[in-house]
Amino acid sequence: xxxxxxxxxxxxxxxxxxxxxxxxxxxxxxxxxxxxxxxxxxxxxxxxxxxxxxxxxxxxxxxxxxxxxxxxxxxxxxxxxxxxxxxxxxxxxxxxxxxxxxxxxx
Length: 106
Known about the structure:
The protein has 3 helices and 3 strands.
């Protein structure tokens, strides 16, 4: 399943908290879209459920670089877009605290 970059989105991928403008904002939005698509691809290729920390580790194991905060943003965006769903399961994250587990929507 791929994100359709030609469809108007309900929300921006990049959460502009910095704030940036113009070409820099457009590039940040593109980068966030690419990250969202990559996270979705990992779910599809593995068929596994992940929490944010597990997804971050999987991305690192695949030789890619992404901030853990960007993984969390991607999980939120993909859940908002109804590509993923948050389960009632919690698994330990980086510091041992429970993190919500996500899976592909059925």
